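User: Predict the structure for this protein chain, please.
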Amino acid sequence: MKTLIKISWRNIWRNRSRSVTIISAIILGLMGGVFSASMRLALEQQQFEDTIDNQVSHIQLHHPDFIANPEARYHIGGGVEIASELSKRDDITVASPRTVVDGMIASSNMNSGVTIKGINPEIEARTTGLEDLVTEGTYFTEKGRLPSVIIGQALANKLNSYAGSRLVLTLQDVDGEMVSSSFRVEGLYKLSSKSFEERTVFINASDLNRIIGDNDIVTEIAVVIENPDDYRKVAEILSGLYPNAKVRHWADLQPSLYYSLEVLGEALIWILIIIIMAVSFGLLNTILMSILERVRELGVLLAVGMKRAKVFSMIVAETTIIALIGGIAGLFMSWGMIRFLGNTGVPIPGGEGLEDFGYASVLYPRLETAFYFEIAIVLVIFAILASVYPAWKAIRLQPAEAVRQE
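Assistant: Here is the predicted structure, written as structure tokens:
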């Protein structure tokens, strides 16, 4: 076996330019495939983090009628106590009680329809990381004559407002009457989704409940679980524990994102398989040309008694060695490329326009280490398959005819 590998190694480098060309093709093909996969994955991961981690959380609880009619009268009975109970469970990280209602926000220049979320600032910071999203001003730390409101950067631009501006919120109270109250913009938050920034504002739950007319109202409980993969299991458990509440996990709340992520897994596999297949056909062509150039040599080997099985193994070994050289080099270079781009980011041409649809203008690709090993395994398998036909052609040679060829 050792001798066979030595012979295969020497045969590879008998035509250096051809071997270097196919190895370079393997390296570039792998780098292109890995880059495409990582960018697609980064896009979906960015959407998942912005949508699930920063907006809807893993699971939400509502009054059954609140989903169709988001009004304060459709609240969760004992919502604060339920949120406290949920936070004590081992499979739940935190549960944030919220008072969520639709309303209008107005500045001296313009008004806009918004979703008003009354929150406990400390719990909400642990739930959606809202505190870390504030890019201008402060996060519910200032005490002034007017209560504070945190609005999105896109909404601030629309209303021509900034930290310190005075805004008026108008909404329905528990009796269905329209009420208004003045707020001061304490901070501006920033997300990739401009639509969320434009339509969602945050105020202290105690301030919102005071305006509504009931200090104990909770219309929504956002839940973050310990293991994100268990979201269906935990949602099913909570549905059994709280039959009077409507429990929905993130796949129910964001079905388009769920199906997009489902398709992503299959898409990544097919992207890599297609690229590796293309590389394998190039490898097959190179080895086949090598066989045609060495017909006489192979005929001599067969004539002096070399077994056809060993000739077959030699051709397979040559192909596998070339694939391993190109594959290992390509994967190391791909790993370095992704590591570098993961730190610097990849600007997307026209990315600012994509923010209107919830996409970031800069992506930070990253891949799990296991992904590289999977690529290596697939590459070796395809390399061996690509070597079968040239090796079969080699062992089909008739020694008497092959040695007479020039």
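The chain has two domains: 2-52+258-402, 64-244.
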